[in-house]
Amino acid sequence: MRAKLVLFIFQFLFISVAWSQVKFEAEVSRNSLGLNERLRVDFVMNQEGDNFKPPAFKNFTVVGGPYQSISNSYINGKRSFKKSYGYYLEPNSRGKLEIGQAEVLINGQTYKTSPVTITVSAAVDQPNQENTANKRASQGIHLVTRISNEQPYLNEGISVEYVLYISPSVNISNWRPIDNPKFADFWSQNIDIKRLEVKEGTYLGEPYRYVTLRKTVLYPQKTGELSIEPLTLSLSVDVLSDRRDFFGRRLYETIDQRVSAKTRTIKVKPLPTENRPANFNGAVGDFKFNVLVNKKNLQVGESLEAKVQVSGSGNLKLFQLPKLVTPSSLEVYEPEHIEEVRTTQNGMQGKIFDNYTLVPQNKGKYPIPALSFSYFDPQQRAYKTLTAQETLIEVEGGVGIPGQTSVTTNQNIGSQKNNITQSREPFRFLKLNTDFHEANANRFFRSLGYWLLLLTPFYILPLLVFLKKKRANSSLNAGEGNASKLVRKYLNEAHQHKKRPDSFYVHLERALYGFIRTKLKIANSDLNKEKVIQVLEQHKVEDKIIEQFITLLKNCEMARYTPLAQANVDHDFEEAKRIVTHLDKKL
């Protein structure tokens, strides 16, 4: 009898200890999902609790809940208790997102759940909906990706449209993008849609309304199969419910719905190697080519402008113009690159040109040789070469040396023509007969010139002190004012496009490469980030400056595919100005 009593007490204590073990945990329906899918999270406790506090859900949108449930049962004399708070969540972005800690007060003590990490990928083609209302809404809403050409050539422009189809059985009161596609392997530019227009049409044979939400022009930068990422939207949808009003009419229920286009794949073809011209520089499209001069007759010392221009439609911002070849007797300044390009749904259209300033130094006739430009025409699937004819510049008069004539001779050194100026009287400036006069020292002493020379140092010394102080003060301004003409020339063009980040970064990248190319005399074909690092290290530039310069180049490349804010533009421009000025002094 005593043994049974001891056993009973032992069992009672064991059950009490087991019952006293409090459990409070977070349970999720899935640990990985697409951006357009949902999950359910339940915060479960095995004892009655008070003051439940859910986490902030800062990485998610709560689309349902809280749903509370309580289960209390006895099995073979053993009590089982369970209480939970449930929520339906939608992720707000891709990546690894964390569901924070929930809190509850049990028996006067605060308990917290452990954080839960959820992996969110891009939107999936067939999302799993977790309630019937969203299933009904998803059947009446479709987001479709339209692609103008699924098999383009490398650097051939294509257009991508995201079109939303809406069934007559549902209405949309609000929408916003929550995940924009990232075109990592393309040069891209969005086309502004000033006003959304709802049109009537069909989808899968059924009548639908549709609206084009976004248009983007893409130029593929690599060959092979490339993915077009989907656009994901959050919508407020009014869908018919099973409830009816007093007159028997069905009522609408407003729900939050996510919709995503399917991921599309295009196959980018490489440009053919057969019959590729030697001077081909990556231009793809339909172009015209000209070399224009503003005058053909001028005086010695006068300047003229020569413009190397490509116009038409194609990847105008993605190739370099051929360099103008001029006679050695013409002084040539670094050209100013100008782009007058607009991007429409059909791609880039307009013209680009390099504007050269030429100054003849001597009288004569100077030919500007013929210049060729090659491009690939994707419509005709063939390379084309355009040639601008030779232009003859005639220089007359001016301040030329009397008795000297200019003879233009052609010497075949590559494609360049050199001018050789021959003089008929090479020694005419040597004066053989001279006249010397004896200086009279008595006339100079106490003369006006004598006193001026004697007093000049007393006037010059204060002036030198003043100039030295002024120069010391001006040296404190080590910013843009101390930059050389070369630095200001290259950065000025990028500065003019600061209000348009996409155009700004294209010009900034060209400015950075152009500065290095001109400063260190590097061939354009050898210019890349690896070469820049190698050359700067050879000139003993600090590692920190090299790293900052390469980071700027990477920012320029990234800006082709990812739109950046104006704050980034301002910061990168100031950084470029500081680094290039430093390199200008260092090199």
Question: What CATH architecture label of the largest domain applies?
Answer: Sandwich
CATH class of the largest domain: Mainly Beta
| Binned strand content | 35-45%
Report the total helices: 9
Tell me the helix content. 10-25%
Task: Give the N-to-C terminal Cα separation.
Answer: 102 Å
Largest sheet: 5 strands, antiparallel
Low-confidence stretches: 13-19, 399-430, 472-483
Could you name the key traits of this structure?
transmembrane, BatD family protein, five-stranded antiparallel sheet, Immunoglobulin-like, 587 residues, BatD, membrane, single chain, 4 domains, alpha+beta
General description of the model:
By secondary structure, the chain is α+β, with helices and mostly antiparallel strands. It starts with a helix and ends with a helix. The chain has helices at residues 2-20, 132-138, 441-444, 448-474, 485-495, 501-520, 529-538, 543-559, 566-586; strands spanning 24-28, 32-34, 39-45, 50-53, 60-75, 78-91, 95-99, 103-106, 109-112, 116-121, 141-147, 158-166, 170-179, 186-191, 199-203, 206-220, 224-228, 232-244, 250-260, 264-268, 285-293, 297-299, 304-314, 330-332, 336-344, 347-360, 364-368, 371-377, 382-388, 391-396. Mean pLDDT is 79; it is low at 13-19, 399-430 and 472-483. The strands form 9 sheets. Strands 11, 12, 14, 15 and 16 form a 5-stranded antiparallel beta sheet that branches. It folds into 4 domains: 21-121, Immunoglobulin-like (Sandwich); 132-268, Immunoglobulin-like; 287-396, Immunoglobulin-like (Sandwich); 480-586. It contains 9 helices and 30 strands. Helix 5 (485-495) packs antiparallel against helix 6, helix 6 crosses helix 8 and helix 6 (501-520) runs parallel beside helix 9. This is BatD family protein. InterPro entries: BatD. Pfam families: BatD. The chain crosses the membrane at residues 448-467. Keywords: Membrane, Transmembrane, Transmembrane helix.
